[in-house]
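Support request, please re-run this one:
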Amino acid sequence: MAEAFGNYIGGTWRQTADLSENRNPARLDDVIGRYARGSAEDVDAAVEAGRDAQPAWAAATPEDRANVLDRAARLIFERVPELGELLAREEGKLRREAEGEVTRAANVMRFFAGEALRLGGEKIASVRAGCEVDVVREPLGVVGLITPWNFPIAIPAWKMAPALAAGNAVVIKPAEITPASTVALVKILEEAGLPAGVVNLVMGSGSVVGNRIVDHPDVRAVSFTGSERVGRQIALAGAEGMKKVQLEMGGKNPMVVMADADLDLAVKVCLDGAFFSTGQRCTASSRLIVEDRIHDAFVEKLDLARAAIRVGDPLEADSQMGPVVSEGQLESNLTYVAQAASEGCEVRGGERLNQAGYFQAPALFLNATNDMKTSQEEIFGPCASVIRVADFDEALATANDTRFGLSSGICTTSLRHATEFRRKSRAGMVMVNLPTAGVDYHVPFGGNKGSSLGAREQGPMAMEFYTSVKTAYSFAGSV
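Re-run finished. Output below.
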């Protein structure tokens, strides 16, 4: 029988009889482990442990906090191959993509080790004689982190690292279908010397564990990455509880291909953005908006490249795309493929490939229009709509015609088109001649409109969410 993993509360791994199996989506007979299904009472215990441990962690020197994060980073770097294999088995990323994600988690930990030392404030001259004004940032207390399945070690790292660097305690709930990578990350933090109770891990369903984290009165902030529907519910609950909320909720990201683009580069950029990581990235290029003059040549080359993608076991060296993460996600993807056909698209690919795992051929929806359901709703799979437009103005308007605003891109050799697109694109991140997916770990991440709410993640700006501002006045004069 596969190993059982309990929740981590107050520095102790707590076993439970209520467990769920974590299976490899490429090999359904490969059970990675059995993982706890936590309760609301587990969340209460985790919050209490965090509340008890947080004052001492906040009172520790910045160097103490930096050292823990730096040791964690070094341990992750040392274990990239084993952690990458674990991640590939549970989520379905190619081994090289999984190892890249693990490396990203290590880089994030190392970066925020530095930010722990750089957390500062301001001294501002007062308008009153004899007064001094200091503006400082302080930790919030206990923060709740709810993470998705598509980046099961990187996203927990980029939420936990700034929270810890700022002096907070953490209660984290990973996605129910990919808990193993987060368990491994928490074990590394424990090994790195993080005091008991500063990080607490409660696994289980969003409806039970997630809801209790959001509703708990002693959780002062919630950072969530996931669906727009759940994000909106958390925003409402956060407002009711008067707590800070940070939401990353996905996108329907456009990649514009202009007639002046380097055609081979455009194909490569779109292939990467739409299909690598099985399209399971919130920054994936799911709308390919192509100028009429280059449309047919672009589609011909892109479809040949799409059809040549080798879909297979992520641990095999010649695989170029792994499986969809779960049966439910695959069924949703196939429903959208059928929807595209019913809307009048010519569908290339998109079929289920075999029954041994959750494999799907990458799909193009040709002759799409921007008002189609498949062009407006996030599919979160290896599916991309190709939309023909007349010129740059129509391309820009089409790119912005979405309720999302996470990432956008343009392939062009025109400085004017690149500059105008960067300025007028209503997205939080804009790429020129680069895939919409794939961002650096040391700069802000986030979007506009229905994609994001609250302070940005990653980079120095991430510290804003995990701290509160205090303005302190001192009178040093005489009356």
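The chain has 15 helices and 21 strands. The chain has two domains: 4-249+442-472, 253-432.
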